[in-house]
Amino acid sequence: MKIEMMTPADDVGMLSKGKVIDFLYEHLDEYGDKKEHIGKALDYALNPYPMAGGFILNYLLSEEIIGSVVVNKTGMKGYIPENVLVYIAVHRDHRGKGIGKKLMNRALETASGDIALHVERDNPARFLYEKLGFQNPYLEMRYYRNGHQKKK
After folding, report:
1. From CA 1, how far away is CA 94, in angstroms rounded?
2. Domains (ranges, CATH) in the chain?
3. With 60 labelled, which of 18, 100, 119, 147 sits at a CA distance of 20 to 30 A?
4. Chain-centre distance of CA 119, in angstroms?
5. What Å distances lie between residue 21 and 15, 68, 104, 122, CA to CA?
6. 81-99 mean pLDDT
7. What is the DSSP string of 30-88?
8. What is the spatial distance between Cα 32 and Cα 25, in angstroms, rounded to a whole number?
9. Strand duo 115-117 + 83-90: pairing
10. Calpha distance 98→90 (Å, rounded)
C-alpha cells in the first residue's frame, strides 16, 4: 500500500483523473456530489495558477484506488483558511482500517496553512475530524439559486 500525490506540477492524464472522479463518486455515498462537480474540484486542485491549486492524495493497493482526498487552496489567509478539504473517501470494503486517518494525517502534513472542511452532522467521519483537532466554531448556511446541489 502506498499514498500517491497528484499536484499541479504533475502531468496528469485524463485516465488518472477520471479514475479519481469515478472512485469519489462511488465511495462518497450519500455525502457526494455530481461527477461534474467532483471534476471541477480536481481541475482546481491541479491548476498551476499561484492563487489556485492544491493536491490530491490517493491511497493505492496494487495500483487500485482505495482512498482519496482532494484539497483546494483558497488563495486567502487569516479570515478564511488557506485550504479547504473538499473530498475524502475510502472504498467501502476497506473502511475501519485506518486508511481515512492516514490520508487525513498526510493531508495535514502536506498542506501549507490552515485547513477548513465541511461535514454533515450525521456523517460518521466527523468524529475522526474532531479527534484530529478540527473545531466547529461556525454554523454554515448556504443559499442555492437552483435548488439543492447534492448528487443525483
Report:
1. 12
2. 2-131 (3.40.630.30)
3. 119
4. 11
5. 10, 10, 19, 24
6. 94
7. GG---HHHHHHHHHHHT--STTS-EEEEEEEETTEEEEEEEEEE-S--SSS-SEEEEEE
8. 6
9. parallel
10. 10
**Is residue 89 within 8 Å of 67, Cβ to Cβ?**
yes
For the beta carbon of residue 112, count every other beta carbon within 10 angstroms.
Answer: 9
**What is the pTM for the complete model shown?**
0.85
CA 39/CA 29 separation, integer angstroms: 16
Beta bridge partners of 59: 3, 67
Contact 87, 68 (CB under 8 A): yes
pLDDT, tens only, 39-52: 999 999 998 887 78
Q: What is the mean pLDDT of residues 13-21?
A: 80
Q: Give me 53's grid cell.
A: 491549486
In this prediction, residue 79 has a pLDDT band, given cuts at 50, 70 and 90, of confident
CA distances to 41, 88, 134, 137 from 38, rounded to whole Å, are: 5, 11, 23, 26
**Nine cell digits for residue 91:** 472504498
Q: How far apart are CA 37 and CA 56, in angstroms?
A: 15
User: Would you state the pLDDT for residue 30?
Assistant: 86
